[in-house]
């Protein structure tokens, strides 16, 4: 949280994601070179390390777990799922700080009602 509070307050959630290095970067050169899209490099490693707590959230919070499972069901790899959870948590933290509200996991991902 200390690194987040050092960021200028007028940054958008997209700029936060870019600062954390979680934005996708395509490598294209001309018409023939089209490498696989990767996430960009973080500006500071200290900023990204707390986001790895998303691994804990993925295991212990039912809404985060459901979002991760939704990604797996849609054919994403586990690493892509973790990156997506980190990015979404970063968006949630940005919203919490911007609107001065506590974290509401029901807004993180709406768990679909299964027909049993």
Mean pLDDT across the residues is 76
Structural class: mainly alpha
- Sheet of most strands: 2 strands, antiparallel
> Helicity range of the residues?
40-55%
Question: Overview of this structure, please?
Answer:
By secondary structure, the protein is mostly helical. It has one domain. Helices cover 53% and strands 11% of the residues. It is built from 7 helices and 2 strands, in the order ααββααααα. Strand 1 and strand 2 form a beta hairpin. Helix 4 packs across helix 5 and helix 5 crosses helix 6. The protein is globular. The protein starts with a helix and ends in an 8-residue tail after the last helix.
Short note summarizing the structure:
With 116 residues, this protein is mainly alpha-helical.
Topology:
Elements: H1 2-6, H2 13-20, E1 24-29, E2 33-39, H3 45-48, H4 54-60, H5 62-73, H6 78-99, H7 105-108
Antiparallel strand pairs: 1-2
Features:
mainly alpha, two-stranded antiparallel ribbon, 11% strand
């Amino acid at each position: 949280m200390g690194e987040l509070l050092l960021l200028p307050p007028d940054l958008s959630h997209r700029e936060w994601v870019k600062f954390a290095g979680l934005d996708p970067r395509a490598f294209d050169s001309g018409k023939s070179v089209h490498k696989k899209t990767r996430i960009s490099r973080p500006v500071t490693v200290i900023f990204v390390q707390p986001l790895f707590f998303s691994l804990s959230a993925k295991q212990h919070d039912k809404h985060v777990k459901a979002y991760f499972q939704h990604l797996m069901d849609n054919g994403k790899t586990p690493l892509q799922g973790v990156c997506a959870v980190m990015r979404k948590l970063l968006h949630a933290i940005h919203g919490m700080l911007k609107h001065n509200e506590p974290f509401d996991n029901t807004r993180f991902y709406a768990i679909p009602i299964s027909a049993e």
